[in-house]
Amino acid sequence: MEKNQISIVNFVRGVEPREPEKDLVLPILEELKVNRRFGLKSTVLLQYDALLRDDMISFFRDLPEDVELGLWFEMNRQLTEAVGIEWRGRPGYDWDWYVNPGFLPAYTCMEREKLIDRAFEKFREIFGFMPKVAGSWLLDSYSMEYMSRKYKLDAMCICREQYAVDAYTLWGGYYNGGYYPSKNNALCPAYSDELQINTPVFRMLGIDPIYGYDEAKYPTGVWGCNTMEPVWTSGSDRRIMEWYMDSYFRSPCLSYSYATTGQENSFGWPSIKAGYELQAEIIAEMSSRGELRVVTLGEAGREFKRSYSKTPCAALCALSDRTDNGLKAIWYNSPRYRAGLVLEPGGRLYFRDLNIFDENYKERYLEEPCLSWDARYDNLPVVDNRLWSSGDNESSIEVANGVNPESFTVIERGLYTLVLEFDSDASGKLERYCVEIGPDGILFKGIREIKYLKGVPEEGQTIEYKRDGRFELSHFGFRYSFEFCNAVVCSDAENYVISSSRDDIGDGEEDRGMDNDKYIKLKIC
How far apart are CA 280 and CA 35, in angstroms? Predict the structure, then answer.
């Protein structure tokens, strides 16, 4: 699979009950014009109600080579009634953005199959072939597995990370790139053949590696979501878009770097136009220089399958800041866990996020439908700086203070490990340190002491220290664990100080000024 790839994914709704007079056809036509002006191929995902409008699909009947068509799965009155399910939307809403009734998890498993089958059948009636790609802001694992198995999809796409935006939360998943999901949890990569869904899933719309995690903690001075979406300020400002491209495609990424951009038609062309044209220009320029390759969603999925039989490791590194806040941020994804690390300008380096992936952890609506207006998909948190921090009680793993930001470097070691090196004077003298983030855990080299700050876990979540560096956690009844190896753990109220216990790592780092006699390993159990 080529190292840097981007897909332009536009999805199309047939109605917009919030603004019934809005022109929903114009955005499709104009997006295609812009793509063709810059020589860019794209993917268009059609909602069922859009399939019923000839003015939305007539220009796709003779399928152009530069456009890939697929299905967008948000529920609407026309689709549910077509399979004999009473529409539960609000009065006047033929499409309703609440999870119940607007998304597949709001229906029983058998109802999900009927809704999926009808959408695929209608698509084939119109275009004469079955689509090979599908997406939605929110897809459940049962629907993913059913579509993957029955329709042999090349790729699927779902929403980026977000907490309580619109009606749904996706929190703690693969932060960027693609993964093979577990049959138990749409947001969790599988690691066994038995539980792996064999169609890759990609996260949509280019999340901001610094500010996408916690929009409120640091001011950004822009309006809207912190993503590449053309409608928002961050997706329509050239300086910010160039920064996105640096972070995604010119920084360490391990196996590969992939992003999607694009927009739904509900925003209307006047709101989308400036950002969409800007992005097309930037993408075309980078493509012409060989810095990235523009692919359809299906091409991305097919290349992913050819390259990886299991979910690969991937990273996203923002080594500069698009604002004056002076932050750096690293995201690391492996089939076992994800980790997010931040370096603040004052020299504090810490993990703000660590989530364990266990393919046996079941999503909430795996067997029963979601009957609430909102829904939550997640994984198994160890650190959650956004949700578990309250006042002086912060959730983090504090690595070092007094770090010189200019000394901070990130190196790829093969396709699996990120190596972070930096200088710190926190001990009273300038010393060189190293953090290696790999598939089964994190190695702190030359570091005598780190701190695990629990914060205030949500109700239903517990953290207990057992012994020999081992912590056991419970997340709404599901138990999991991790451990600090080669470590002495001391409790400080609700927080823990972890110190190195042996002096035996010695692997030839002396010439870089590191104290090799000290190391700590955080191991994912």
Answer: 7
pLDDT at 504: 52
**Mean pLDDT along residues 428-452:** 94
> 175 and 203 in contact (C-beta within 8 Å)?
yes
Token match 């029955």: residue? 150
Instruction: Tell me the HSE value of 211 on the side-chain side, using a 13 A CA sphere.
Output: 24
* Residue linked to tokens 């790729």: 155
Extract the runs of DSSP E, i.e. beta strands, from 37-108. Answer: 42-46, 67-72
- pLDDT per residue over 202-216, tens digit each? 999 999 999 999 988
Q: Please choose, from the candidates 190, 343, 184, 328, the residue with its C-alpha nearest in 3D space to the C-alpha of residue 251.
A: 328
What is the pLDDT confidence band of residue 517, given thresholds at 50, 70 and 90? low
Long-range contacts of 146-151 (CB under 8 A, 24+ apart): 146/112, 146/113, 146/116, 147/116, 147/199, 148/197, 148/198, 148/199, 151/120
CA distance 47 to 56: 11
> And the tokens for 306?
């050819």
Query: How far apart, in whole angstroms, are the C-alpha atoms of residue 304 and residue 84?
Result: 37
Return the HEC string of 218-238: CCCCCCCCCECCCCCHHHHCH
**Structure tokens belonging to residue 405:** 């930001």
User: Whole-angstrom Cα distance, residue 248 to residue 2?
Assistant: 14
Contact (Cβ atoms closer than 8 angstroms) between residue 38 and residue 284: yes
CB neighbour list of residue 12: distance below 8 Å, 6 or more residues apart? 24, 28, 44, 45, 46, 47, 50, 56, 72, 264, 265
Q: Over the range 86-101, which residues count as b (16 or more CB within 10 Å of their CB) and which as e? A: ebbbeeebbbbbbbbb
Distance between CA atoms of residues 303 and 486, nearest Å: 41
Q: Is the pLDDT of residue 379 over 50?
A: yes
